[in-house]
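Look over this record as teaching material.
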Amino acid sequence: MPAASKREVGHRIATIRRARRMTQAHLARTAYLSLPTIKAIERGARAPSDTSLDSIAAALGVDPSRLTTEAAPTGDRIHAAIPAISAAIAGYDIPMAPPRRALAELRSAADDAVNWRLAAQYTQIAKHAPALLDDTLSCLHHTRGRDQQEAARLLVGIARAADAVAYKYGHHDLSARLIELMRWAARQSEDPLVGSVVAYVRTETFFAARAYGPGLRALEQAIDASPTPTCPEAYAARGALHMRAAVIAGRAKDAEAATLHLGEARALCDEVPEGEYQGTAVGPDSVRVHEVSVAVSLGSDHVSQALDVAAEWSPPDDMPAERQSSFWIELARAQLWAGLMDDSFESLQVARLVAPQHTRGHPWARETAATLRRLRRADAARLTAFAEWIGAV
């Protein structure tokens, strides 16, 4: 790593550490590194290894890509992990060796995987997913009764985290296999709310194939099969399905269906406080994000609807990073269509700040950056640097 890059990485680590109100000694303890190592890294005298960078990022609660200025290693490391994830699920229905981790330990690890996905920390997922999948599958096969049902629920959450990596990095065949694993595990869980989660995630298969009509029908069937809302979790599950149905209806250019599902989602989500339910962000704020997504999905004729939402609301800081960045990426697309070039570029930069890996892997972010670079002349240096970072040039 060049000296300039080492200094920049050290500065970013120190800045985020101070924002977290952590001392260097606290960071060293939390990252399992020596205090002299942390001091050397922060002043730019030493470049962190990949392992050290992961440990520091985990201690700070950010993705490693927030700390490094180099573009290639993060993506390369994620792609390198794909074969191990694929191998871990190859024989998912075949009992293998006894589990190496107890159910309680897997429960904590599964929570970590869900949190990494919501925070768009894909390198962390890629690093840990193969062993997590393997151990949870073993636990499911070697337990019975309620323990087996819980192992199945945990497996869905872990597989969903792995699927986020596979889908967002273009490994759609693996994504489809992970979704089939989730559908199998949902049946083992005997929990209809878990089935609703899997139906929500399954929509990725239809997005990837651009099969929006069948995807909408699949979601509507899942809505009909979902439990009657009698508790916050059930309201959230059905509300999430309606949010997803509104977006895919927008992609199908079915404005009537999109409006109908968005209205149903709004009514259901008004019944629950904003939060994460079964690993999905649901609530009034999440509906607003989907209002922008639906408007952009319907096309440039609906751009005013997205701009109207953004004029009076923006995602709160405590909303999951992945969902926040989706809002800014889709708003940037709407602003581009409206001729608001500076605003569009600003939105892309906010998306990058919130969730760099999610932004960099999003095709709409890349497309918007490429278009802005082609059309604009002002601030050309910053825009070119951004376009190079996101892979638009």
Remarks:
- The two ends are 23 Å apart (CA to CA).
- The chain is about 75% helix and 0% strand.
- The domain at 1-70 is CATH 1.10.260.40 (434 Repressor (Amino-terminal Domain)).
- The longest helix spans residues 145-168.
